[in-house]
Amino acid sequence: MVNAAIAGVSRSANGNEPEFDMTDRDFNTIAELAGRHTGIVLGPHKRTMVYGRIARRIRATGLVSFQRYLAYLEQHPDQELSHFINAITTNLTSFFREPHHFHFLDQQLLPRLKLQNSASKRLRIWSAGCSIGQEAYTIAISVLRAGFPKDWDIRILATDLDSNVLATGEQGIYPLDHIESLDVEVKRNHFRPTPDGRSVQINADLRNMVHFKRLNLLEPWPMNGPFDLIFCRNVVIYFNKDSQRMLFDHFADYLAADGHLCIGHSENLAGVSERFQPLGQTVYRKIR
Question: Residue limits of the CheR-type methyltransferase domain (predicted)?
């Protein structure tokens, strides 16, 4: 940690000027680093977001400017690069987000897989870009509701670039307001209050089903597959088209024959991949 004694940074007297000055050169350097290490494309429209997130790292390290922070990042990548990546990564999530995907799981896909995989008794699902784990745990709730026999080998892989959110996911502890909108039955069956009464924790049966791992999607993947289903929602919108093509081609390679892919509501595979058949509402089936 840089000596906090040099931190004394505050807003100007009128309170309207930014705490730190971020030049075009600073922003371009941050965008280049983000692209190189994460594949995320930071256009000019992301400037305000970048300012807010990197300003927090400047305060945390006790530095006084974007220029000094970037110099520190270059000189001490072992200490700071993971914090930089965590700051840039977007981690918006919620339970049962984009509920049409879970309707598809409940009503169509999981009942079909229970019959289709009855000989192998194996089910593999991947939540790519899992954030704090709420997507993966929602998938696990759907799997439990589908009533797979107890002798099945069921695993849900949850990966993310951000090590901080993965730690939260592994604990499975969330503020009470994160489950306010859930059905009473879901709350009763799958959550328990923490001792302080201010949070809830996912029940052990769900936590045991989900395995969290750090993974950069643009680096080699150590998993073997194949997966029956991959969720990768609201992730590729930050990648350029070449990275998207490579990523979806890789997903197809890791999916079982007739495997399925769910992407975000603002994403589509048009002009990106011809290896999937659209089924509607951003659900796709692998065709080759």
Answer: 15-288
Task: Map tokens 């990042």 to a residue.
Answer: 73
User: Which residues of the chain register pLDDT less than 70?
Assistant: 1-16, 39, 90-92
Query: Is residue 24 flagged as an active site residue?
Result: no
What is the per-residue pLDDT across 84-94, written as a single tens digit (0 to 9) for each?
A: 987 887 666 78
CATH of the domain at 15: 1.10.155.10
47, 53, 97, 145: the catalytic one is: 53
Q: Pull the structure tokens for residue 159.
A: 């990966």
Q: 263: number of CA atoms within 13 Å, CB side?
A: 22
285 included as an active-site residue:
no
Q: Which of 160, 162, 207, 228 is catalytic?
A: 160
CA 34, CA 215: separation in Å to the nearest integer? 15
**Cα distances (angstroms) measured from residue 31 to each of 61, 83, 145:** 20, 15, 43
| 121 and 19 assigned to the same domain | no
**Is position 93 within any domain?**
no
Helix H or strand E segment including 191? strand 191-193
